[in-house]
Amino acid sequence: MFRGLYTAASGMLSQQRRIEMITNNIANANTPGYKADQASLRAFPDMLMHRIQQMTIPTEKKPTWRDRTYIGPLSTGVYVQELVPNFTQGDIRETGNNTDIAIVDGTGTSFFIVQNESGDVRYTRNGHFTIDADGFLTTTDGFYVLDESGNRIQVGDEQFTVREDGTITKGEETIARLGIAYAANVQSLAKEGNGLFRAEGELPLAETYTIRQQYIERSNVDLSRAMTDMLSAYRAFEANQKILQAYDKSMDKAANEIGRLK
What we know:
The protein is α+β, with helices and mostly antiparallel strands. 23% of the residues lie in helices and 33% in strands. It has two helices and 19 strands. The chain is elongated and about 110 Å long. 26% of the residues are buried.
């Protein structure tokens, strides 16, 4: 009985994590460059069940021995093994804003290289940039956008042009070229908040991509699918909840009614 109770409880916890993940995806459906998470569920190792019984030979001395009868496997529950981001490229939408820049590569494996005040490097697909008080191109969170040499890009104001190869010009002057990194294995990136990713070591520069100025990459969250997955997870949670309640009632009867003297 207790094994079934723990199995139902593990199912509830797993579906709760799925609901939290899907809720976060829906909340970021309008966040530029956001990559939706996907949950990977895995069952705990199965237990092989046997019934041990005493066998007797129908003779005068009636010798006995213990015999095992194979029953079958028993699942011991499920858990969320990991949350894996979906790096599929989102739709490209025109904004008309000169500081909005989108990477078009079709694979979602290229990233802007950004840096915080402490010098820590991160990677992002969110090209909704702005210009700080010193004229540097930054993210909305204050991370500096870096060029291909790892230097911060100072554009002064919004009157600049970004070519398809990432070269930034202002009038006849070439300011810099955007640093675009390439991740051969995107699943090795660690997801942080605000659309930022962390890599172990430095990623190489990308070679094949197209830059679109005054465009932005939208989130790749599929709202219709997310709502369907939300309902599915909620119903699975409810089913495990009812099983848990049934076990609770059974234990209550066993403890308070069965074997009671009247």
